[in-house]
Amino acid sequence: YNPTYQPNIKQLRKIVPLIAESQKPTIFAGGGVILSKASNELTDFARRTQMPVTTSLMGLGAFPATDPLWLGMIGMHGTYRANMSTGECDLLIGIGVRFDDRVTGRIDAFAPNLSYFFSNGMDPEYTVIGRVARRIWAIAMRELYGGASRSQKLKYHIQTSGRSLHSQDIQFNDIRTTLQALCAIYDNCNSLHTNA
Q1: Do strands 116-120 and 156-160 pair parallel, antiparallel, or not at all (unpaired)?
Q2: Alpha carbon 158 to chain centroid distance?
Q3: Which of 161, 160, 156 is closest to 193 using CA atoms?
Q4: 12 φ, ψ to 5°?
Q5: Contact (Cβ atoms closer than 8 angstroms) between residue 93 and residue 27
Q6: What whole-number distance in Å separates Cα of residue 44 and Cα of residue 22?
Q7: Is residue 28 scored above 80 in pLDDT?
């Protein structure tokens, strides 16, 4: 086992705009927070962003239960407040947690407003990323979880690549961003976010 201790800067650049744009974010923390002794960091992050926090059973104690941002435990034995907040959130950040059946319950009813973000680039695979993801999602939801037709519909959004903003490519920025946006539209994404 060789865990990563340093954050991935590319991933951080993707998540920061999502947090900023989110209207109803929620943090879902688990036992991994306790095992990694990261409770102080979780608490600091939640308070700085003013995001409510729910935990799994194994994550109880990772966040102070006396804090106004505390929603309680999620899942079949969780609180109404935690389950409703998670179901209605538009951004769910999982920290040190796994999504097991005690949390999700009926997979086709879990967090129906969630959607996923993909980063777009200039490589050929980006022209079909949404179609492939939607197909895999639909098959998995139907065949593995017995999900209803609504749960088989993946909502996803495209973020154009940050590479288009490099100063050394300034003359190509508009063309590259336009091509990335065109790929996303042809791929039927639910929304498009550009860096330009």
Answers
A1: parallel
A2: 13
A3: 160
A4: -65, -40
A5: yes
A6: 19
A7: yes
Helix %, strand %, coil % of the chain (to 5): 45, 15, 40
Half-sphere exposure of 133 (CA within 13 A, CB side): 21
DSSP string, 148-176: -TGGG---EEEEE-GGGG-GGGGGGHHHH
Any idea which of 77-81, 89-93, 190-194 has the lowest mean pLDDT? 190-194
Please state the rounded mean pLDDT for residues 116-140.
72
Q: In what order do the strands lie in the sheet with 25-29?
A: 70-73, 53-55, 25-29, 91-95
Alpha-helical runs (H) found in 96-161: 101-104, 129-139
pLDDT higher than threshold 80 for residue 107: no
Distances (CA, A) of 59 to 90, 107, 189, 196: 22, 21, 34, 40
- What CA–CA distance (Å, rounded) separates 179 from 68? 45
Going along 30-189, which residue ranges are E strands? 53-55, 70-73, 91-95, 116-120, 156-160
